[in-house]
Amino acid sequence: MRQAETITDPLQRCLSYPDPPNSRWRPEVVAAYCRFYAQPTLSFDDVRQLIRSGHAKQLDQRLDQALQAQITQPDARGRLDRIFQNAFENPSADARATLDAWKQADPGSAFAYAASGDAYASMAADARGGDFIQNTPGAALVAMTHLAEKAQVDLRHAIALDPRLTPAYGAMMDIARMAFGRDKALAAEAAGLQQSPGDYYLYFSAIILAEPKWGGSIDELNALARQARAQAARYPLLYLAANDADSRTFNFYNCGCDHSTSLARIESALTHASNVPMLESAGHTMGRAGRQDLAVVYTSEAIRFADAPLDHLDRAYQLAKLGHPAWAHQQFEALLPELPGRGDIYRGMGFADIKLKQDDRAVGELQQAVQLDRTDIWSQATLGEIYARQKKWGQAWAIADQLIQEKPDMPDGWCLRADVQMGQPRAGLADTEQAFAQRFGNRPDQQGELRRIRDALAHGAR
C-alpha cells in the first residue's frame, strides 16, 4: 500500500495498489474503476475561469468532447458524469452566479442548462438538510421545493436541447425524489437508462431511489442488482452497482453496529469489488467498532480510487489508533496545505504526538486545534491533562474551570479538576466528588473515575 502510494501517475498508482486481503475483486472491474477516477476532469475553478474570461464556447467544446468520449470510448465511460459531479454539484452562491452568467453568454448550450440544473439540485438538497422529514422545518421544505422547481426547468431544457446528457437525468431523479414524487423520479430513471443503458452514475441514483426509505423495496433493489449484473460483462462498473444494491438490502450504510454478525456481513460484501461510498462507510463502521485494522484497509481502498483529502484525514486517525503514530503524524502534516484552517488536523497531530510521547510538540498542536475550533472539548481536556502531567497546575486548573463553565454536563472538566486537586494538591476534592457523583454516578463509563476520586479521598485527600 505505502509503496503504491509513492507512484505519481494516478492510473498506475491505482492499478498497482493491492486489493484487500481475502477479497475476490475482478481485475477488469478494478481496472475500469481506476480509469473512471483517473480520467481527465474539470473543477469548478476551471469552469469559472473560462466563463469569466469570455470562453464559454471553449467550455462547451471541452464538455462535448467528454460526452463524445463517454459514448464512444470504453475507457472513457462516465467521463462527463465525473465532470458534473466534480464541478457542478455545488450549492455555493459563487457557483450560482457563474452558471447564470454562462447561460446568459451561451443560451443555446445544453451543458450550461444541465450544469445550472445540477447546481440548483445541490442547493435544494442543502436547503432541506439531512434530518428526517418530520424534523425538518417547514421553511426549509419550502426553500427546497422552490430550488427544485428551478432545477427542473433548467434540466428539462437541457434534455430538450440534447437528450444524451446523462447527468441531467441523474439530477432529475434526485430532485423528484426530494420534491416531486416517486413516479417522476422513476420516469427520469427510465428515460436516462434508455439513452445510456450501462451508465454507472444513473444506476447509482436508481439504487438510492430503490431503497425502502425512498418508497422502494428489497425486491426492487434485488431486481436492480440482477439487471446490473446482466450488463456488467459489457459495462464492468455495473458490478460495483450490483454490489451496492445488494449492500442496501441489509442497511450496510447505516449499520451503527459493533456485533460480530453484522460486521462479518459487511466484510463479506467487501470481498467483491466495491465503490468508494461503500469503502468509506465500511471504514467508518469498522473504526467505530474498534477494528482499526479493517478500517485502515477499507479507507485505503477508497483513497486508491478517489484520493480524497477527507479520506486521508480519516485514515490518519485510524493509523494512530492502530499503533502507527509516526506514519499518522506524517499524513496529518501532509494534509495541512490541502485542508487549511481545520482544527481536526491539528487535533490529530496532537493525538499522534501523545502516543509518540512528544508532549511538548503536542501542546502547540492542541493549542492550534482549540484556536481553530472552540467546540473541540477533547483537545481542551487533553491539553489540560498534559499541563497536569507537567505540573503546570495553574494552566490545567484554568482549562478545567473553562470546561466546567461551558460544558458542565460533560465529565472532562470535572475529571481534570480532580486531577489537579489530587496532584498539586488543591482543596475541594470532596466537593468535586459530590458534583461528579450527582452528574455522572449512573453512567457505567464513569465508574472507574468515580472510584479513583473516592480512593483518593479515602487516603486523606480533601
From TrEMBL:
Residues 46-181 form the DUF4034 domain. InterPro entries: DUF4034, TPR-like_helical_dom_sf. Transmembrane segments: none annotated. This is DUF4034 domain-containing protein. Pfam families: DUF4034 (PF13226).
